[in-house]
Amino acid sequence: MEIKKHAEGAYMPTAIPDWILHSDTYSPSADKEAFLRKTIAAISRTITFFGPSRYQVQKRHRGNITADLLLLFVSVLLIVSAHSVVFPLLILAIELVYLAALDGKQIRGIIKPAVIAFCFSCVLVFPSLFLGNNRWMELPFKIFITVLGVSYVSRITPLYEISRALRAVHIPCIFILVWDMTIKYIILLGHTILHLLISLRLRSVGKNDHKYQSMAAIMGTTFLKSQEYAKDTYHAMVCRCFTGTYEAAVRQADWSTYIMYGIAAVLLIGCYLFLEGYIG
C-alpha cells in the first residue's frame, strides 16, 4: 500500500490499483508451425546445396574438370549402349571405390538422387514385366549407375568450375549464361525468402489464423526483390562491358593429367569391347 502526503501535511493511505495486483504472465496459445519449419528447412538445404559449403570434398579433387566431364560422358554412352550388365557392374564398382573415400553425409547426398531416379524408373518399367519382359530391371539399373556418377561429379565440382569446363568443350555461351544466372538467383532469392520466413516465425506470437496472407506477402516481396536483383545485375553487366561471351580460361597444359585421363578412357573402351564380346 502506498502512503501519499496530504496537501495539509497529513499522510493518507492510497489504494493500489487492481491492475498492479494481477500477474503479467502471458501464455500464448499453441499454434502449428510444421509447415513453416519444413519450408525453412527445405530452403536452407537448397541454399546449402548450391552454396560454397557444399564443396567440402573439392580439396581432395586434383583432376581436370573438363577431362572429368568428357570421361563421364564417355562412361554414360558406354553404359547406355551395353547389352549386358557386366560392364555397368564394372562402372558401379569403380564408383563405389570413389564413394568409399567420402564420409556418410556426403555419400547420402550423392546416393539419394540415384535412388530416387531408380525407384521412379522402376515404376515406369514395371508394367512391361506382364508383357513378358524378363530384363525389365536392366534399364533402372543403368539409370541408377548413370545418375550416381553424375551426382558424384556434381558434388565434388564447384559450379564455377563446371561453367569453365562447359565453355572449354565449346558449349554455347547463352547456355552458360542461363546456368550462371539460375544458380545466382537460386541463392539470392533463397536467402531472401529464408530471412522473411524467419522474421514471420519470430513475430508470430500465439495462434495466427492468417498465415496464408503472410505467405502471399512474402511471395510478393520476393518478386519485387527479384526485379531489383535483375536491374542490379543488368547495370553491373553494363559497367563491366559484358557482352555475353564467356572465355575459356587458358592454363598451362599438364600433359601427365591428360595422359592419365586418356589411358582411363582407353581402358574403359577396351573393357567395354571385351565384355560385350566385340574383341577377344
UniProtKB/TrEMBL annotation:
<feature type="transmembrane region" description="Helical">
    <location>
        <begin position="139"/>
        <end position="157"/>
    </location>
</feature>
<keyword id="KW-1133">Transmembrane helix</keyword>
<feature type="transmembrane region" description="Helical">
    <location>
        <begin position="69"/>
        <end position="94"/>
    </location>
</feature>
<keyword id="KW-0472">Membrane</keyword>
<protein>
    <recommendedName>
        <fullName>Cobalt permease</fullName>
    </recommendedName>
</protein>
<dbReference type="InterPro" id="IPR051611">
    <property type="entry name" value="ECF_transporter_component"/>
</dbReference>
<dbReference type="Pfam" id="PF02361">
    <property type="entry name" value="CbiQ"/>
</dbReference>
<feature type="transmembrane region" description="Helical">
    <location>
        <begin position="114"/>
        <end position="132"/>
    </location>
</feature>
<keyword id="KW-0812">Transmembrane</keyword>
<keyword id="KW-1003">Cell membrane</keyword>
<dbReference type="GO" id="GO:0005886">
    <property type="term" value="C:plasma membrane"/>
</dbReference>
<feature type="transmembrane region" description="Helical">
    <location>
        <begin position="258"/>
        <end position="275"/>
    </location>
</feature>
<feature type="transmembrane region" description="Helical">
    <location>
        <begin position="169"/>
        <end position="198"/>
    </location>
</feature>
<dbReference type="InterPro" id="IPR003339">
    <property type="entry name" value="ABC/ECF_trnsptr_transmembrane"/>
</dbReference>
